[in-house]
Structures are given as C-alpha cells and as structure tokens.
C-alpha cells in the first residue's frame, strides 16, 4: 500500500473512532423500551400520510417547499409544513424545542451539532430504508455518533484553491502545483510578478480552524489518537501543518490583517490572485471580474503532503425522536436523497449533492470547475461529532490567530489547544 493510501486509511479510521469516542449513551434498555444505539424500527411500506412539521435554515428553508409540493403530489394524503429558520438563531431554537419536547418531525441539522443532539437523546437512528453507502464517505461520517448514524447528508460543500490562470502564465507558472512546497512557490511567484499578496489565508478569527485542519489531515495528522481515546493536537504531524500555515505570514506571502469582504475584488484586480474557498465563490468572483473573467481563473485541488485533504461542510437531515409521524418523515428524507431529487435540488439552490451518483448528471459533470469539487469531496473530512466541538473550535481559532499575527511558536500553540481540549473533554 502506498503512502498516500495508508494516510487516507488511517485518517478514515481515526474519524470513525472519533465518532465512537463521542458522548456516550446507555446501551442497556428495558425489554419494552426502544433500542438505545443504532437500531431503528422498520419503516412501514406504502404512501406517506398524515402531517409533517419540517424546519430548514436560510435559502434551504425558502426553497424546500417546492420539493415538498412534489412529494405531496405523490402522496396526496400527506401535508408538509416547512418553517424557515434563520441560521443565527437555529441552534438555540433547536435546543429549546428539544428541552420542551416540541421539536419538529424533521429538520436540517448542522453537521457539528450531531454529537450534542444525540447526547440529548433527540434524534432517531437512521433506518435501513436509507442506503448509507450512496453518500460521500466524509459526509456520511458527519452523521455518525457511537458507530450509529442519526441523520443523512443532505447537501455538501468543500474547498479548493482558486487561482488566476492569466496571472500565473505571466508569472511563468506552466503547471499547477500538487504539494505544499509547490503551492507556496506559486504564491511567491505571483508576488514577484506584481501581486500585493500571493494568497489570502484567514489569519485567525471565527472558523480559521477550517483552513488549518485540512493541512493537519493532509500531513497524516488527526484530532485524536488512533484509538480515539485522547486528543492529539500536539502531534508532530499537526505541529508541522501549523508551521507550514504560519510560514505564509512570516514570509510576507499572506496578509496578517486582510480587509474583510474584499476577497472577490482583490482576486478580480489581481492584488491577491489565490484564495481557498467553496463553489459559491465562483459566481461571486465572476460578478466582481465582469464579462470574460470566467476565462481568467480556475480551481485546483488542495495541496498534499501525504494526501490532498479538504474540509467538508453542508447540512444533514435528521428525524426527531418525538416525531409522531416518523415513517412519513423518513420517507420524505429518502425522497430528498434520491439521485434525481438531488440534481433537481442543485438546480434550485446550487447546493452540491451528497449522493455521489448525482454528480454524473450533465449539470454537474459538464461543468469542469464543479467536477473538481466533486473529486475533492472524495478526500474531504469533517470535524468530530462530539458534544464539545464548538468550544474546542473556539480555542483552536484563538491559537491560530496568535500563530498568524503574533508569531507564536506552533508547537506552543498546539500544546495549548491540547491542554484546553483535554480540559473541556469530549462530552
């Protein structure tokens, strides 16, 4: 087995163990109680009937009624009520409804909330009706807690490197790099050819861990030890990854204080001809660049050390245990994750399909840039499904900022994250 394959296998195993190590549940149950852990009762055959209360956030909450109407047309004795929920208030609304026993039948759930909601015993395990093997592996892992799936991936996103092809040619770059060293050399070449900064990297602040974590995975690092029993932020592989990230700032290639909201304009002007982001930025940079700009840039895979790894985001669909119509809820989930429905949803929202087979549709496979995101999804991963991840992520962000802006020794930063994560625990 080659080095790249070994690293990918090890990373997948570590992420699986993270789910096992997440907040535990009592596996013992009285004979009359529902199974506590991965067993979910069968879904009755036949049309969906009754009524469903569904919550969804943001644009998804606005667009989902259209698919709900189509499903109700196929199931005329079913009524679906979709309630849009603002993202900024969604988490608190969910936890309050769980505590009050008023959670909806079905909802869009943030991937980093899974461990917390399972710890609250709020989610129904995924039934056999759903083919869990059809999803991208990294996306499916976001539904897992204690080796049990409690949701399905609804849509996904991942990040690639956006770069100016025309300016690369002017800088003498004839082929895109595939490794860490090559990416840094390319960023420096842009600067040598007149760019103000070679690449835009987030120097701390909320969510900056999403830039560093893929580098850790790429280098064979992980958030926990192999058996999932302890955190491993201070491993040699992780320190090397953070050191590489820091070098862009210490070498003056990336700005330690970028102006927020100017990524698209700076990319279009050539002031900062590289950045890392998701597919939603395609339309944004083309709008900033104007007519013909689509021919002046491209995307490339994340650079590799051991593997090319990226961050996987998106949202899951989960059925709540208090649902009085779980069969209809899961049938609607099954409908939303059929290949054809996923393609239709992409057309409505541009949300990328979580079902791998949907990427064979011409609307995705025919778009060369989008297809590259699909390829990266095969080695894209998510943070652990543990109850305390949000707290740990905040500590991570704080140390990343110190590394980028205050030249903190990466080994000291990782030691600090390790200490705080261990103190917080896994839930």
Automatic annotation (TrEMBL):
GO molecular function, one term: maltose binding
A GO BP entry: maltodextrin transmembrane transport
Signal peptide (residue range): 1-21
Skewed-composition ranges (Low complexity): 37-47
Keywords, sorted A to Z: Signal, Transport
GO CC aspect terms: ATP-binding cassette (ABC) transporter complex, substrate-binding subunit-containing
Domain of life: Bacteria
Disordered: annotated segments: 26-47
CDD domains hit by this protein: PBP2_MalE
Pfam families: SBP_bac_1
Family assignment from sequence similarity: Belongs to the bacterial solute-binding protein 1 family.
Family matches, as PANTHER family: MALTOSE-BINDING PERIPLASMIC PROTEIN, MALTOSE_MALTODEXTRIN-BINDING PERIPLASMIC PROTEIN
The protein's name in its UniProt record: Extracellular solute-binding protein
């Amino acid at each position: 087995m080659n080095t790249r394959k070994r690293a990918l296998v090890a990373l997948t195993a570590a992420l699986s163990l993270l789910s096992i190590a997440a907040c535990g549940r009592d596996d013992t149950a009285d004979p009359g109680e529902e199974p506590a852990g991965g067993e979910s009762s069968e879904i009755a055959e036949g049309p969906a009937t009754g009524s469903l209360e569904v919550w969804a956030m943001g644009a998804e909450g606005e667009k989902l009624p259209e698919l709900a109407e189509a499903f109700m047309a196929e199931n005329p004795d079913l009524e679906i009520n979709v309630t849009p929920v603002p993202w900024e208030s969604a988490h608190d609304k969910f936890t309050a409804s769980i505590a009050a026993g008023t959670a909806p039948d079905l909802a869009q759930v943030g991937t980093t909330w899974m461990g917390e909601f399972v710890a609250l015993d709020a989610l129904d395990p995924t039934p056999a009706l759903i083919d869990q093997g059809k999803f991208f592996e990294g996306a499916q892992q976001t539904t897992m807690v204690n080796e049990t799936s409690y949701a399905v991936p609804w849509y996904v996103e991942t990040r690639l490197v956006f770069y100016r092809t025309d300016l690369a040619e002017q800088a003498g770059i004839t082929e895109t790099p595939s490794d860490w060293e090559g990416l840094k050399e390319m960023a420096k070449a842009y600067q040598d050819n007149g760019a103000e900064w070679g690449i835009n990297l987030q120097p701390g602040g909320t969510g900056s861990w999403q830039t560093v974590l893929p580098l850790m995975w790429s280098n064979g690092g992980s958030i926990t030890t192999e058996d999932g029993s302890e955190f491993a932020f201070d491993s040699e592989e992780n320190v090397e990854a953070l050191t590489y990230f820091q070098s862009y700032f210490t070498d003056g290639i990336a700005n330690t204080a970028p102006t927020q909201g100017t990524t698209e304009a700076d990319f279009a002007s050539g002031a900062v001809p590289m950045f890392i982001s998701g597919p939603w930025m395609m339309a944004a940079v083309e709008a900033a660049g104007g007519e013909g700009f689509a021919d002046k840039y491209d995307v490339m895979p994340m650079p590799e050390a051991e593997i090319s790894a990226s961050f996987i985001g998106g949202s899951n669909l989960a059925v709540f245990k208090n649902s009085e119509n779980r069969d209809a809820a899961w049938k609607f989930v099954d409908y939303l994750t059929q290949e054809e429905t996923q393609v239709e949803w992409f057309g409505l929202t541009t949300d990328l399909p979580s079902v791998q087979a949907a990427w064979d549709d011409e609307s995705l496979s025919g778009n060369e840039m989008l297809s590259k995101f699909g390829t990266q999804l095969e080695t894209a991963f998510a943070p652990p499904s543990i109850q305390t991840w949000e707290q740990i992520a905040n500590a991570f962000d704080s140390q990343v900022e110190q590394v980028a802006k205050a030249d903190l020794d990466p080994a000291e930063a990782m030691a600090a994250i390790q200490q705080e994560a261990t103190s917080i625990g896994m839930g």
